[in-house]
Structures are given as structure tokens and as C-alpha cells.
Amino acid sequence: MDESALLQSVPDRLLIGGEWVEASSGARFEVHDPATGAVLRSVADATPEDGVRALDAAVAAQPAWASTAPRARADILRRTWQLVQDHADDLALLMTLEMGKPLAEARGEVAYGSEFLRWFGEEAVRIAGRYAVAPEGTGRMIVSKHPVGPCYFITPWNFPLAMATRKIGPALAAGCTVVLKPAELTPLTTLYLATLFEQAGLPAGVVNIVTTTASGPVSEPIIADPRLRKLSFTGSTGVGKRLIAQSAQNVLRTSMELGGNAPFLVFEDADLDTAVDAAMLAKFRNIGEACTAANRFLVHASVADEFTRRITERVRGLRIGRGTEEGVSIGPLINDAAVAKAERLVSDAVERGAQLVLGGERVDRPGTFFAPTVVAGVRAGSEILREEIFGPVVSIVPFEDEDEAVRLANATEYGLVSYVFTRDLARGQRMIERLETGMMGLNVGVVSNAAAPFGGVKQSGIGREGGIEGIEEYLETKYTLTRDPFAR
Ligand code: NAP
Q1: Domain that holds residue 120
Q2: Which of 98, 115, 257, 472 is catalytic?
Q3: Does a structural domain hold residue 455?
Q4: Nearest to 374 by CA among 353, 396, 352
Q5: Catalytic residue at 257?
Q6: Span 102-155, pLDDT tens digits
């Protein structure tokens, strides 16, 4: 489909109880293309009452969905996966239009994001408990698994498809119903995805979508409602902390996928070609706007200059442009605030003594573009080492030995992912034990996989998405003790 036909095909209202409805206020908001600033579409702007109506629908649909046969739930997930493949080009283009990522990367997100539907469809039929003889030999213990119940999902703008499917896939597989609130900046992909669930035969009310400019006011009454059983959030650590505080009121189960500050360690024995290839992926995938993006390149002093030279050559070759253009690998940042943040972090690093090797400024063209940047010799205390950059900036810090590398890598409140480059297996194993992150790439620059437990430690989050761990987030464990069946 061409751009305008595709945009017109996206439903522009709220999905509540199987009906596409306007916001009760009648209000709407505009969605923009960050590459041009142009308005793509306007969509319904939900009120807090609309949010509660969506929860009403999820609560009403919960009993029937929980008692739908696992095989039937699995079949719907599988059919939706197939529909996503059939509409892959449309979904990819929509993401590029509303978020800015290059089309090739948007296609990659379709493949990655849809896999959560297929993988968790396969898990739906494997939910099992256990039966045991009590140690005393008398009673019998039954452990059974049950869907948690209605869930509320809040997703960010940086991976509009995958952040939704990573939650919806396991929730539906487990038998939970859903209210999903996408980010104001990128609601179109989620709305389109909802149409594919409808075509796959998902019953009304199982997935409900509320788009809004008032994320706080719409979320608060949903989170405060005692009928809600689970909150899953992906976004910044600051917002995550507020949501955890709100969740405390009803002792709500939460999953939190929060910010990162990934260290990328290059030891003196690393294969530098492998490290540079992986660095390009770990840094520039999604224009640097990924929670898993390498934020701090910690490089052994003996190879720091060579690493800097090689990566700078590669970065110089990156092509900036609208994500729909052929050969573009760096699209726009999401908005002006993101450009201002990248500018501020680079200037602070340079003021504190780092060398600006390449880039460092906004690109002079319409849209919110920031030049791919390399800063080397970044000094301790620089803000770029503390904050998530969320932009195309390579920040390089030399280290002298393994202990210093570990100390620098762990010197952050975040703990999502780390990347380690070494040819020494024992050193790699030591890093698994010493680095305080929930995930690690050992000689690889991207770790995400639907079959693996994605998530962080420290202030990067609570819980895991993906893998066999992912479905547990949506299941309650119930223990029943029965009498000794042989007792009289
Ligand atoms: P954000 O500002 O925290 O927003 C995330 C979501 O929360 C959006 O839907 C947003 O809606 C909503 N939100 C904002 N304030 C809220 C409130 N008071 N109550 C309820 N919802 C609220 O983060 P972002 O800038 O969109 O995303 C970037 C962040 O996400 C980065 O920190 C990144 O590391 C993190 N992230 C983490 C993972 C992971 O798996 N660990 C994955 C991707 C991204 P509106 O935008 O419409 O206000």
C-alpha cells in the first residue's frame, strides 16, 4: 500500500469491548512524522472515563477467555502471527512513518515482534503444574497455574510493535485479558495490530486499546481499580517508579522494563573486527533509541585508539535521511527534546575534557536529526556516562585492567544489558558473574530473542519478558493440599 492509503486504513478510534469508538469527550490528537514534522493522522484522545470503560470490557471478557481451551488461544496467536507476516510491509512502513526508524530496521522489528505471538502461542499449550507426595508421606500436594486476570499495559514509542507483542503474546497465552495504552507519539502501529487480532478471531474485549495525550490521568484510575490484577510497563525508570508507587495501593503485580546504561567492554584480546561490527549494531540500531543501546564503550587502553579509528570510519559512512529512503541507516530522533538531550550530553563530555572525533550537532534539515557522533577519552563525572543517551552517540572511555573495567561497568544504577568482547573464555565467564546486568552479549551486539528472558536488574526493572520465564509473569501459582488418599 502507498503511504496515504496505508495511513487511511488505520483505525483512528479507541478499541473497547470489540467496538471502535470515539473518545467520550470527542477529542482527538495528531500523530507526526519525525522526519518531516508532517501530520500523519489524528486519533481519538481517551479520557480517564474511557480508560475505565476499557477495563470494564477486559474484566467482562476475562472469565470466558480464561476458560477458552489453550489450543484455541494458541491458534488465535498463531493466526495473528501469520497475519502480521502477510502485512509485514504495511506494519514496517507505519513504524517508519510514526517513529522514524529506517525501513529495513522496521522490517526487522516486525520479524522480532511477531515472534512473541508465535512463540507464546506454542507456550499456551504447555502451561502445567505439579503433583507431589508430601515429605511426610501423608498428604498430596497439587500446584496449579491460573491466569493472573485483567492486565494493563503501557508501552513506549521506540519499538511500537515489539513492546506491545512482548506483553500481549504471553498474556493471551496465559488466559489474561488486556487494556493497552501505546505512547502518544506512536499509536498507529498498535491500532493496526489490533485489526489483525480481530481478523484472527480474537473475541471482543480480550484486547482493548486506549490512545491518549493524558497518560497519567488515564492510567491512575485503571491502576487504582481493584479489578485490575497486573500492570506491565515499558519505559523510563522515572515513570516506572511512579507506577510502582501507585501499584503499591492494591499490591498489584507489576512487570517493569525500564531504562538502561549498557556498558560495551572491549578487552585487549578481543577480535576488533567482531567488536566494531557488534558496536555498530549495539549503538546505531534504532538510531540509538533503544534501552539496550550501548551507552558506554569501555575499551582497554592498548586498543582504544585503534577501536576509535575503526568505529569512526564506519560511523562516517552512515547515511542520514527519512527512514523510507533507500540506503538510510540513521533516521530522525523522536523529537526536539531528544536532539537537545544528545547535544547537551556531548557538550558536557567535551567541556569535561573528551575529544569530539565526529559529529556532535543537530543536522541542518527539516525534522529532528542528530549527526552520528563519536567522543573519545570521556572523563569520569561526565553526564553522558550517567544518563541514557538515546541517540547516535559513541562515547569511549579507556580502562587499564579487568578490575577497573568491571568497576566502571557497574558504576550505574541501571543493570539491563552488557556487551563483552574477549577471546578468553574464562574472562567471559568471569564477566557473566561480575557484571550487574540482567542480560549479556558475549562477543555479540544484539541479544533480543522471543525465546529468551529479557529484563534487567537494579533500576532497570522487575520481571522478564520472553522465554519460559515470560509466561510466568501472567500466571498465579496455587497450592492445594489434599488428604492422604489411602487414609481411612
Ligand atoms: P516514558 O516517557 O517513560 O513513556 C513510556 C510510556 O509511559 C508511554 O506510553 C508514556 O505515554 C507513558 N507514561 C508517561 N508518563 C506516564 C504516567 N505518569 N503514567 C502512566 N503512563 C505514563 O518513556 P519513553 O520516553 O516513551 O521510552 C523510552 C524509555 O523506555 C527509555 O528509558 C528506555 O530505556 C525505556 N525502554 C525500556 C525497555 C526495556 O525493555 N527495558 C524497552 C524499550 C524502552 P506518553 O508518551 O503518551 O505520555
Answers
A1: 3-258+460-478
A2: 257
A3: no
A4: 396
A5: yes
A6: 999 999 999 999 999 999 999 999 999 999 999 999 999 999 999 999 999 999
203 shares a domain with 104? yes
**How far apart are the C-alpha atoms of 225 and 52, rounded to whole Å?**
8
For ligand 1, atom 9, name the residue with the nearest CA.
183
39-98: per-residue pLDDT in tens?
Answer: 999 999 999 999 999 999 999 999 999 999 999 999 999 999 999 999 999 999 999 999
List the CATH number of the domain containing 173.
Answer: 3.40.605.10
> Is 429 within 8 Å of 304 (Cβ atoms)?
no
What is the total count of domains within the chain?
2
Among residues 355, 232, 350, 346, the alpha carbon closest in space to that of 288 is found at 346
Cα of 218 vs centre of ligand 1, distance in Å, is 14
484, part of any domain: no
- Within 10 angstroms of residue 118's Cβ, the number of other Cβ atoms is 20
Asked whether 425 and 414 are in contact (CB, 8 A), the reply is no
Q: How many helices (H) and strands (E) does the chain have?
A: 16, 20
Same domain, 67 and 164: yes
* Rounded Cα distance, 344 and 352, in Å: 12
291 labelled catalytic: yes
Residue 188: beta bridge partners? none
Write the pLDDT tens digit of every residue in 277-303.
999 999 999 999 999 999 999 999 999
Q: C-alpha grid cell for residue 232?
A: 506491565
Question: Nine-digit cell at 70?
Answer: 489453550
Which atom of ligand 1 sits closest to the CA of residue 159? 43
Tell me the C-alpha distance between 317 and 358, whole Å: 11
Are residues 223 and 296 located together in one domain of the fold? no
Alpha helices in 249-398 (DSSP H): 272-284, 301-316, 336-351, 383-386
* Number of neighbouring beta carbons within 10 Å of residue 195: 16
